[in-house]
Automatic annotation (TrEMBL):
Cross-referenced InterPro entries: Rab3GAP2, RAB3GAP2_C, RAB3GAP_N
Domain Rab3GAP regulatory subunit C-terminal: 388-947
Gene Ontology terms: cellular component: cytoplasm
Protein name: Rab3 GTPase-activating protein non-catalytic subunit
PANTHER family reported for this sequence: RAB3 GTPASE-ACTIVATING PROTEIN NON-CATALYTIC SUBUNIT (PTHR12472:SF0), RAB3-GAP REGULATORY DOMAIN (PTHR12472)
A GO molecular-function annotation: GTPase activator activity
Family the UniProt entry places it in: Belongs to the Rab3-GAP regulatory subunit family.
UniProt keyword list: Cytoplasm, GTPase activation
Localization terms from the record: Cytoplasm
Species: Acanthoscelides obtectus (Bean weevil)
Rab3-GAP regulatory subunit N-terminal domain residues: 5-122
Amino acid sequence: MSLSTHPADAMGCRFGLCDLRRTATDVILSPDKMFAAACDTLGRVLLVDSIRGVVVKIFKGYRDAQCSFIQVPDEKKSKHRHGNKVAHFLLIYSPKKGTLEIFSLLQGSKICTFTASKFSRLFNINYGLMGFNSTTSKSRYVCQWTSVLIDNDGQIKEIMVPYHFALAEKNNKRSRDIHLYKKLRHYIKSGDYNEETLLKESYDICTELKTLEIKSQIVDMLISNRNIPANVILKCAKYFVENAADDEGINFRILCDNISHLLELYLFVANKQNGDNDETENSSLKLDEKDMTNLQKLLDLSIDSDSKELPEVHVRFSDKNLAFSTSEFLSAFDFTNVEIVTLKDKVDDGILFKTSEVLLKPYITGELSSFAQLENLFIKAKIDTKNLFCMLVNYWVNRSLHINLNLEKEMNNFLHLCYTLLRTASKEDTVCNYNQVSTFWSKIRETLANSSRPFPALMAAILCKTAAHKINIEKQMEDSSISVEEESMEVLSQESVLWSLLIGKLEDISLLNIIMSTKALAKDAALPKLQHDKIDVSLKYILEKGRGAVSEIVARWLSSSGIDPQLIVLNEMTEKEEENFESEKILDQLNLLKEQFPYSLNSSALLANLAWEYALDWQKEIQDFSKLEAAMKCLGCIQNVQVKQGMYQLLWNTHLKIVNESTCKLINKVGKLPKERLCRQDTGLSDAQITIFLGITSDFLDAFMDVTQTACSPHPLQFENIWENGGQPLVELAAQQKQANYDLLHLHYQLSMVLQMITTFGVKHSKPVNNLFEASVVNVLFTDFARNVEVSWNKSDIKINASRTQFLFKVISASIESITINESGKIYSTQHVTWMAKCLSLARFWNLDVDLFKRYQITKLYTNGFDSLSEELIPSINDRNELGKNLLMVGAKRMSQYLTKSPDFSNNIAALSPALTNYMDTLDDEWCAPCPVEKIAALATYIIQCINEDQIEHRLAQLLLEASVTIGELKS
């Protein structure tokens, strides 16, 4: 089979560009097929008109260039059959220079240059997946894809160019406006201007703008720049309002109109443009003298302790670094609505305070008194009356209080402002019937209750109540429902009741907040001083926290002073006139608070919360046992037994139980106190710290047992009427705890003592928990103390009793080693006596022979040479015969040791009888403290007195005594 060869068909050349020295590397055709870009080896890019066959433009200096075309449709929608207008741009990527340049295809001018990596790749995408068509187009000359640049780091970047860059600058309004916008922005950014030149430049540019979009951008730029003075923004905004075309957006005109009115108000107040004083109205507004007296007392107390002063705001328009700029003032408002200007929902607290201060401080302090003009400006600015009241209250409660404050004057001015603002509101919002509640005033009361400075909020509440009453009276007078003589009478309405309740609560919280703001100081700090974050005490905070809020806050305050808890109890039990407590300022402050909160601040509630504060702080740093000991000291001073029992149980379950359980498991596993690394790994404490902790735990459980055995009758806890609901207070939770199972509590006390003995003396005992306690008892360890379980102490088997006996023997021996003797021969045995008492206590709990351990103690004391201590304990022994046998071995060992070290051994050994010598040979080689022969004779005398005469040990004791006497005679 053969294939026939067909001759090639010659193609006709439509046009060509002949250059023998030039070699093209790439040819890219535009999406509309009208242009082509050719890259060559001479570093040129040729833009070719493919219709006419001519080179339109040559770009030089682009070696190894990569080209692409972009189509950008016009933003304005067109009804033309071919669709919207389309602009074409040429992209040239130069790897050698590391730049990406964009050119207008028709004009040939460069639009912009971007920096790119030298190892990027520009892709001209003019096709999609074969056979796949996801979009439709009215024209086959419109490209459905775009151009992308792939960086060397793998990022794909899409190149997008706005449509207006393709238009001629002279014939396009939007392009010209953009140029003016950039010009003004650059001028403002340079900072090379004064207020007059900035005003002229800004106004001139605003007059030349044609498009609404750029006008809006100019306004946004002016109001967001903190360096633009208010009069510049005002003049530009007024121009846009006065010269707005009918076809321009209504929202833009509303925006500029609201901004201009706000700035007129701003400039009027900031420039102190005072009009006619309202003297007649000023003299007619008076407050009750009793209210003024009470407030002045609180003010005096507040001035001494006020630690939260907000910085004063000074507005100077000649200074470029404004303390509070016009842009910040405008940023507080939402001025896009037609009928009303409101505060933004989430305006910053600092901005809100400064805005309120700029507008209202001159009228509060009396610098300005033209309330009528202010009222007109408020109405003209269309600011919501609720927001104005919010600003007034915000400034009033957060302003700084100082010693030179004229309280009466500022309160009168505040009242004038209240009345002025109320006249700008509708009567339906501020006036209601006697049995109704105003939503307007409810919002104000909520704001005052939430304030973190309740004393200024108290003043504001009294003044707002007065203003509300006056407005109601005026409304009723207009309706002819009351006469002029009845104006001063207060009608008992739902509103007045709510105001009175709020004022009463704020009085109590004001006193609490003022005292809590002071530093708690105690003359002699008996407990550690805790550090706490400052709490802003407000009525809302107190009500939300519930009935235990006051106790908790005051206890936290007291814990920062380290006050002795016994002083709190004595202060409650002792008359105030006693001299011992007059000088303690912290107790005077506490007594002042007790007048308002008698139930929340009784000693039991305070000490319970104080103990809890120390326990919580110890939990953060469990190595600091001083805080745990402080908590126990506070618990011990609680007078209410029911609360005291519950607090012991809460403290154990919450803070001590977990550490004790992990310590118990660790020691039971190892059989002794492990090394520091293992201790820290399991418990977070070092080996030495575990010993201290177990000692504190033993004392805690001992005190817990004493409290559990104390009889108490339940008494209902009382709280102030300020709370209707809220969280459960600590004292109530403690009082609701079930009675602890004494046997279970006693079991944990025994375990704690065992662990303490092991850690203190380094005693080794295999699995002490399992070998010293019955299996049935081990299963209930670290369960709830309120659990109803039976713990039996009389079912121990012989193996456990033997283990217990050996354990106590080890502890007694180790405790005797703690006895020391100074140079003068004085013996210090306090620690041994303490631990011996604990050993005997455990022996009684475990039903062991107590006399056995006493005999063992005396024997060990003689072995270690503490004869004087032993002689004091001999009368307490019941079975002296057995004691005598034990002491006989000690005496024989002493004699053997004496003979071994004696220089005249042959003569001394002759003084011993064969029977005594044979007995000495049967003894073990256990160490015995050396002693003179006189002490051996004295010990032999005690032995003879203890042992019965019919026993062989009695005869050996006599022989020992005779030998001691003989050796003594030979020695002398």
